[in-house]
Prior knowledge:
The model has no long low-confidence stretch (mean pLDDT about 95). Helix 5 (about 85-95) links the parallel strand 4 (about 75-80) and strand 5. This protein has helices at about 15-25, 25-35, 45-55, 65-70, 85-95, 105-120, 140-145, 160-170, 175-185, 195, 200-215, 235-240, 305-320, 365-375, 405-420, and strands at about 5-10, 35-45, 60, 75-80, 100, 125, 150-155, 225, 245-255, 260-270, 280-290, 290-300, 350-360, 380-385, 395-400, 405, 430. It is elongated, with a radius of gyration of 24 Å. Strands 7, 8, 9, 10, 11, 12, 13, 14, 15, 16 and 17 form an eleven-stranded mixed β-sheet that branches. A six-stranded parallel β-sheet has the order 3-2-1-4-5-6, with helices on both faces. The chain has three domains: about 5-135 and about 305-340, Rossmann fold; about 145-300, Dihydrodipicolinate Reductase, domain 2 (2-Layer Sandwich); about 350-430, Alpha-Beta Plaits (2-Layer Sandwich). It is an alpha/beta fold and about 425 residues long. It is about 40% helix and about 25% strand.
Amino acid sequence: MKPIKVGLLGIGTVGSGTFQVLRRNQEEIQRRAGRGIQITMVADLQVEHAKSLVGPGVEVVGDAHEVIARPDIDIVVELIGGYGVAKTLVLQAIEAGKHVVTANKALLAVHGTEIFEAASRKGVVVAFEAAVAGGIPIIKALREGLTANRIDWIAGIINGTTNFILSEMRSKGLDFDVVLKEAQRLGYAEADPTFDIEGVDAAHKATIMSAIAFGIPVQFDKAHVEGITQLQAADIRYAEQLGYRIKLLGIAKRRENGIELRVHPTLVPAKRLIANVEGAMNAVVVQGDAVGTTLYYGKGAGAEPTASAVVADLVDITRLHTADPHHRVPHLAFQPSALASTPILEMSQVVTAFYLRLRVSDQPGVMARITSILAASDISIDALLQRASAEGEKQTDVIILTHNIQEGRMREAIAQMQALPTVLAPIISLRKEELA
């Protein structure tokens, strides 16, 4: 049987990794796929550099449209990134009747509904395992391995840059700005790290996972997104004293009245496995009604870990190349006609527990006024930590952990506490998840 021919758009870090993995493991891959898989054409603006990477036998062009127009190309791999030209090229490849593999989480989180609908009309596959958590096969797990389950929630460390920063802040007691510079020096953070540290990258991935888990369209514009730029070393220390670690989590939860879709720094009990994921590693916890809790852990980025997922998609498409389109695994796990219109909840409706840090005057009656405000809002206290003030110091920190409460009510209570004359600084609030 003739090999499947692949056109590669972009041969940067992931593209070159994909080429190397496919060439190095060609025999093993052919045994699994049932036929060979060959990258026969590459498009990259740096033509000469691309030629030096692939060597003879692979045609290199500077215009990606040439790859899409080539009749003998069966699968197009898009590794350009971004929302603009990548979207145009993916839709053109679909229209040309070619299967598509992409690692572009931003593209799918924002334009996935349009892209998947176009692919369904043309009877082609859009595969995107590499778009979420690099080499961890979380898309396949959600879409196929857990298909018997009603998924209750997902919580994931799905951005390695922020996890590295938080790990360093905790282990070395350093502030965010100091660790960010070190992360950039070591290559864990980009020169412009905005998408990572502001939570946007994690929100793209959480959006995709939520769509697969709950059978809803991708809706990135409705996700709540907070990064780690305002996180202080003091709160990491206090969380540790209370038995928690702070992680940037992408969370998607099924509720009776809708779906929670949010990314933010979160206190997690130190005894949970995900709380002990350090450095640039990724991990995703999935709770299903039949299987219970499952954990997926590994490298979330890098040339070959991501290439592992890209090549796995190529193998899947090769196996299904001649299959009836109606009998393939749906892009978002559920049949396209069965996608639900379940709403994404506003943050004011989200129910979670809270960590509060209040800088207060060290005088009698302060705690009574604070606890009375919480009691009046039906907010119960789970734990309380009051730092002893130093000799001669007239102010101190009070740390409060609450039980679950609707966010809107907590915000109202925080506003009331902030108005007290004995509260001397803006109240720090972080959300807490037991993940039990």
